[in-house]
Amino acid sequence: MNDRIEIPKTQFVTLLDSVMQWAACSSFLPGEVPPPEWIEPDPESCQHWLEAVTVMRAADTAIERVYVQQRIADASGDGAARSAREAHRAEIARVVDDFCGTPPRLPAPWPPSRVPLKNEGLRATTLLALAGRFHAAAGRMEDHALAPELGIGADRLFEVGLGRLA
Fold first, then answer.
1. 55 lies in some domain
2. Is 119 a member of any domain?
3. Surface-to-core class of residue 107, CB atoms within 10 Å of its CB (0-12 exposed, 13-18 middle, 19+ buried)
4. What are the phi and psi torsion angles at 131 (to 5°)?
5. pTM confidence score
6. Which pLDDT tens digit goes with each residue over 121-131?
7. Which domain, by its residues, includes 69?
8. Number of structural domains, the chain?
9. Is residue 22 part of a domain?
10. Is residue 141 part of a domain?
11. Which own/partner pairs from 90-97 qualify as long-range (CB within 8 Å, at least 24 positions apart)?
12. Over the stretch 30-71, which tens digit does the pLDDT of each residue have?
């Protein structure tokens, strides 16, 4: 039996996005009645889901921040754009290093999280979801100067995430 599957990154990103949309621990507001035969979610699974959502939002914030700052620098002129591009490439690499680290760190600025991150590092599934997020951002930016760096970050996150699965 072959224990290996292959899937293009773009399809993997689509799969992760769909999982993140329906995997909520509970969509019920206080007082709402769950459907018949509803099975309560596992508290440990909810913690993993909350960690993933927290990290995804931190990643989105970091990606949006460097993108907006680079657009401002691009509008300012060539000299500012070049120096900003180098700083933003380094920032993207640092954010990826922070996510891959043991213990992981959320990129600043980010408000303190009520979801503590484990000292042993982010779970493989969270890193793979992050990789999907970086890959999707690189694809959406296409011709933007930072798109290749986001792709490199996605590759590193995929590599570390898959390594933690083993």
1. yes
2. yes
3. buried
4. -60, -40
5. 0.75
6. 888 888 888 99
7. 40-165
8. 1
9. no
10. yes
11. 91/62, 91/66, 92/62, 92/63, 92/66, 92/146, 92/149, 92/150, 92/153, 93/149, 93/152, 93/153, 95/59, 95/62, 95/153, 96/134, 96/153, 96/156, 96/157
12. 667 777 776 676 677 677 777 788 888 889 999 999 999 888
